[in-house]
Design a protein that fits this description.
One of its GO terms (cellular component) is endoplasmic reticulum membrane. It is an enzyme of class 1 (oxidoreductase). The chain is built from 20 helices and 6 strands. It is mainly alpha-helical. The chain folds into 2 domains: 19-55 and 74-303, no CATH class; 304-434, no CATH class. The structure holds NADPH dihydro-nicotinamide-adenine-dinucleotide phosphate and the ligand CC(C)=CCC[C@@H](C)[C@H]1CC=C2C3=C(CC[C@@]21C)[C@@]1(C)CC[C@H](O)C(C)(C)[C@@H]1CC3.
Length: 434
Amino acid sequence: MSVAKTKADLNPRTQGYEFLGPLGALFITLAVPATTYALYFGCSESSGGCPPALDTLWPTLSSSLSDPEWWQSLWDTKASLMYLAWYAFCVVAYFVLPGDWIEGTQIRDGTRKMYKINAFSTFLLSMGITFGLIWRFGAQSFTFIYEHWVGFATAALAMSIFQGLACYLTSFHGDKLLALGGNTGNPIYDFFIGRELNPSIGLFDVKSFNELRPGLILWALVDISLACEQAVRRGSNITDSMALVLFFQLLYIADGLYNEPAIFTTMDITTDGFGFMLAVGDLLWVPFVYSLQARYLVSHQVELGPVWCAIVLVVNFTGYYIFRSANGEKNDFRNGKNPKNLRYMDTARGTKLLTSGWWGVCRHPNYLGDLLMALAWSLPTGFETPITYFYVAYFTVLLIHRELRDEENCEKKYGADWHKYTKLVKYRIFPYIY
Ligand SMILES: NC(=O)C1=CN([C@@H]2O[C@H](COP(=O)(O)OP(=O)(O)OC[C@H]3O[C@@H](n4cnc5c(N)ncnc54)[C@H](OP(=O)(O)O)[C@@H]3O)[C@@H](O)[C@H]2O)C=CC1
Ligand SMILES: CC(C)=CCC[C@@H](C)[C@H]1CC=C2C3=C(CC[C@@]21C)[C@@]1(C)CC[C@H](O)C(C)(C)[C@@H]1CC3
C-alpha cells in the first residue's frame, strides 16, 4: 500500500501541455521528417539547387509527392544496413572503450544515475578510421554518405520511430520513474515528449547515449563526406568556405563530446523524458539538417577570401568563447567548484544561483554563444539563398522556446527566489534587447 502511494507520488499525472498540446506534438512529429526531406529535395542539384526564396520550395517538391517511384526512392537497403552497422559500432565502442563512471545529478527519487564517459574516445576512434581511410584510399572512398544521403536519413528516421515507440511502450512496465512533463495520458503527446525519464537497459542509458554518440558523431561523418565530394569534384583542395564550415562544426562536435559530463546538468537529461522528439532530434535532425550548409557548398563552391574568412572566424570564436565559458562556469558551479570566485545567491531550494560572470550578463549566456556560432556556420554560404540560413532561424526559435520552458521550470523549482534572480539578471538571452 505504502509502496503504491510512493510511486503515485513520484509520478503524478502531468496537468498542463507544452508545444501546444497533442496537436502541436503531432504537427512536430510529422514536420521534422518532412522538413528534413524538403530541405534535401528542395535544395539539391537534381532540383536545380537551393531556390532564391522560400516560397519557391513548395512547387519544386509538390510534383514528387504524387509519384510512387519518388516514395520508393526514399528507401535504400544498402544505406540502411550501413546505418545499422554504424549504430552497432557506437554501442560496441560504448562497452569496449575504457571510460570513467561518473554520477549524474540527483533525480527526484533521491538517487543518482551512473554514466560511462567515453563519447570522446568513440569520436576519436571514428575520426581515426575515417581519416585513415581517406588518407589511404583518397577522398572518393568517403563520398558514399553523400551518394546515399536519402537512404541514410530514412534509416535514421526508422531508428527514431523504433526507439520512440519502444521507450513509450516499455514505460508502462515495471516501476519506472516518469518525466514530470510526459505523463498526461494522451498517447500522441506522451510518445512525442517522452514518458519515461531515463529509459535504460541495465546500466546502459538510452537517452544520453543517443544525445551524444550515433547522431552527433554521424553529423561529423556527413560533413566529412560532403567535403570529400567537393574535393573529388574540384580535383584539388576544398574551398575556404567548406574548410571553415567543416572546422567549426567538427570543433563544436568535439567540444560537446569532450565535455560529456556537462550534459548531465542540461534540461534534456535532468527534466525531459526520452520520446520521439529527442530520438528524431538526435538521430535524424542533427546529422542531416545541421549539415545543410556543407551540402550546399558541395555544388556552390564559394571562395570567401581572407577578409571574409577573418570576419567569420571572429564571429565563430566570439560565440565559442561565450558558449564554452558560460557552460564551464555553470558546470563547475553545479559540481561544487567556483574557480573564478563568482558571486551567487542562496535559495530556499538549497541550490545556489550564479549572479556574476556570464550568468550575471543574461539568464542564458550559453544560448547567446551558440547562436553566434550558428550564424558563423551559415555566413560562408554567402547570400544567394536564404535556405542555408535555415539553421540560424530554426535555432533562434528553438532556443527562445527552450528558454521559456526552462524559465517556467525554474519558477516552479525556485519560486520567489527565481523572481529575485530575474530582477538581478534582467535579460534572458540578448543583453539590453531580450
Ligand atoms: N546545438 C543544438 O541544437 C542545441 C544546443 N543546446 C545547448 O546545450 C546547452 C545546454 O542547454 P540547456 O539544457 O537548455 O540549458 P542550460 O545548460 O542553460 O541549463 C539550464 C539550467 O541551468 C540552471 N541554472 C539556470 N540559471 C542558473 C544560474 N544563474 N546559476 C546556476 N545554474 C543556473 C537551472 O537548473 P538548476 O538550477 O536546477 O541546476 C536551469 O534549469 C546550451 O549550451 C545550449 O546552447 C541546446 C539545445 C540544442
Ligand atoms: C526539431 C527537433 C525535433 C528538435 C529536438 C531538439 C534536439 C535537436 C536538441 C535538443 C538538445 C540538443 C542538444 C544538442 C544537440 C541538439 C539537441 C539534441 C547538443 C548535443 C549539441 C552539442 C552541444 O555541445 C551540447 C552537448 C551542449 C548539446 C546538448 C543539447
